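Customer escalation, tier 2.

The customer says the design service returned an amino acid string that "doesn't look like it belongs to this structure." They asked us to rerun it and document both sides in this ticket. The original C-alpha cells are below, unchanged.
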C-alpha cells in the first residue's frame, strides 16, 4: 500500500515541475515503468504536450521526464539530454569477465548512499557494464566505483549516452495450462503456488498489468498483456495456444531474464 501511496504523491510533484517548465527546461529523476505510465496518463488528461521521456537508449525501462516551454522545438530540446544523462562504462579485466551480475552493480551503487531514482538502467555484459545516471551524480559514482575493491582494476569512465551499447532483451519461454485466464489463476501457475497465495500477492499490490497495479483477482488476462509480479519477475502473455485434453487453456509466456 505504501508504494502505491508514494506513486500517487508523485503526480502533484510532477505537475508542479511542469508549471516551472513554462519558463525553462526541467527534468525529473529516473522513473520506473509503472510511474511513467501513470504520469503519462495524467499529463495527457491535463492536455500537456511539451514533454517526453528519455532513458538513454531506445529500449530503456527507467526514464526521466523532460518538460520544456511552449514554442520550443522538441528536436532541439532532445539535444539537451546529453547534458542531463550520462553513462558510466565499467570495463572489467579478463580475470573477472562474467563474474558480475546486475544485482552486483546495483548493490554496490546503493552502498554509496544514492537513492534508486538517481540511477537508470544498468546494462550488463560479460566484459563490461553501462550504468545510466544523472549527469550531476556521474563524477561521484565514477570515483566511488574506482575505490571499490572489486573494481580496482577496472577501467571506469563517463561517456555520452550515444556511446552506450544496447542489449537485446533476453527471455525464457514457458508454458502454463490454466482452468481460467483470471489473474489469480495465471499467477498461481506461473509461480507454481496456491491460488490463495497468488491472491495475497494481489492484495499486497505486488501485481501490475501493463504497468498499472491490479487488485482484482478476477481480472481476465489477454494476449500481449505485460504482467509484473514484484519480487518474482516480469512476463509477457505471448499467446493463447488452445485447450489441452483436460480442457485447460495453454498459454505461451515470455519471462524477462
Amino acid at each position: 500500500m505504501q508504494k502505491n501511496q508514494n506513486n500517487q504523491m508523485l503526480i502533484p510533484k510532477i505537475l508542479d515541475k511542469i508549471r516551472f517548465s513554462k519558463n525553462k527546461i526541467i527534468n525529473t529523476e529516473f522513473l520506473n515503468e509503472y510511474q511513467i505510465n501513470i504520469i503519462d496518463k495524467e499529463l495527457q488528461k491535463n492536455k500537456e504536450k511539451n514533454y517526453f521521456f528519455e532513458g538513454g537508449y531506445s529500449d530503456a525501462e527507467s526514464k526521466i521526464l523532460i518538460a520544456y516551454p511552449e514554442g520550443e522545438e522538441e528536436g532541439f530540446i532532445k539535444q539537451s539530454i546529453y547534458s542531463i544523462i550520462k553513462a558510466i562504462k565499467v570495463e572489467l579485466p579478463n580475470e573477472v569477465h562474467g563474474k558480475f551480475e546486475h544485482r552486483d552493480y546495483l548493490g554496490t551503487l546503493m552502498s554509496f548512499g544514492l537513492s534508486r531514482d538517481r540511477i537508470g538502467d544498468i546494462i550488463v555484459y560479460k566484459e563490461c557494464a553501462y550504468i545510466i545516471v544523472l549527469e550531476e551524480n556521474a563524477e561521484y559514482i565514477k570515483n566511488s566505483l574506482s575505490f571499490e575493491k572489486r573494481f580496482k582494476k577496472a577501467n571506469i569512465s563517463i561517456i555520452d549516452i550515444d556511446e552506450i551499447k544496447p542489449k537485446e532483451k533476453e527471455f525464457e519461454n514457458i508454458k502454463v495450462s490454466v482452468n481460467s485466464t483470471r489473474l489469480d489463476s495465471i499467477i498461481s501457475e506461473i509461480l507454481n503456488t496456491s491460488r490463495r497465495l497468488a491472491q495475497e500477492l494481489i492484495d499486497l499490490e505486488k501485481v501490475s498489468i501493463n504497468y498499472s497495479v491490479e487488485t482484482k483477482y478476477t481480472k481476465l488476462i489477454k494476449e500481449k498483456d505485460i504482467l509484473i509480479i514484484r519480487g518474482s519477475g516480469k512476463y509477457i502473455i505471448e499467446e493463447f495456444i488452445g485447450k489441452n485434453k483436460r480442457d485447460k487453456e495453454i498459454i505461451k509466456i515470455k519471462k524477462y531474464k
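Tier 2 assessment: The sequence is consistent with the input. The two ends are 27 Å apart (CA to CA). Residues 88 and 238 are 34 Å apart (CA to CA). Sent an explanation to the customer and offered a walkthrough call.
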